[in-house]
Specification:
By secondary structure, this protein is of the alpha+beta class. The chain is built from five helices and eleven strands. It binds nickel (II) ion.
């Protein structure tokens, strides 16, 4: 339907504009502490001491309560978004899944994690069917508005619901970085939207524990 298409185009435009503003703000905030690494310059390495990450209490896609401690000892690739996102989230979650698979058996030390910034719609049940579309080991996390606000704040993630007349059809603009978290929960790297999966895998591989093989 033309009307539906026009609405989608309008929403996508607003999301893109708002996202651009959010990212510009975020990058201004970050540029003193981040430096580009890699030949293609497509990943950002955060210098130690930058406070990204930290304790959280959330609900996973199976309905279990989880905290950051449940992931200690493993690496996490963390992405914040919402399951009805038309483009950014599916693109980046596919990249994360491809990067994890690219690592082969060593990739099992990496947990792909999707944190919803739309907890009202993204129930554990919704996330269960969503994350499975991307990777069998992807963990979906949701929570109360307060819990999501707290974890977004800890990761310095920007998100905001776009005003809409339809309570069931709205967009949420959000930061589109992927965060690589170390075995102790500290931030190691962050990748911008659209990073090539092979480049993400190469960067993550440098942080995997030695396998001895
Ligand atoms: Ni999204």
């Amino acid at each position: 339907m033309l009307k539906t298409r026009l609405i989608r185009i309008a929403v996508a435009s607003v999301v893109a504009l708002a996202l651009g503003a959010g990212i510009a703000w975020w990058q201004l905030d970050q540029q003193r502490t981040a430096r580009q690494v890699g030949s293609a310059g497509s990943s950002l390495a955060v210098t130690p001491g930058v406070p990204i990450g930290g304790p959280f209490t959330l609900t996973d896609h199976t309905g279990e309560t989880v905290t950051e401690a449940d992931f200690h000892g493993r690496l996490m690739l963390v992405y914040f978004g919402f399951s009805s996102c038309p483009d950014f989230c599916p693109t980046d979650l596919s990249i994360i899944a491809q990067a994890v698979d690219e690592l082969g058996p060593a990739g099992e030390a990496v947990v792909p994690v999707f944190v919803s910034v739309d907890p009202n719609r993204d129930t554990p049940e919704v996330l269960a069917s969503y994350v499975g579309l991307f990777h069998p080991r992807m963990v979906g996390l949701t929570g109360s508005d307060e819990q999501i606000a707290a974890v977004a704040d800890a990761y310095r993630v920007y998100y905001a619901r776009v005003p809409s007349d339809d309570p069931d059809f709205y967009a949420v603009d959000h930061t589109t970085f992927t965060y690589l978290m170390g075995p102790d929960g500290s931030n190691l790297l962050m990748f911008p939207h659209g990073t090539h999966p092979e480049r993400m895998a190469e960067a993550v591989a440098q942080h995997l524990p030695a396998t001895g093989s």
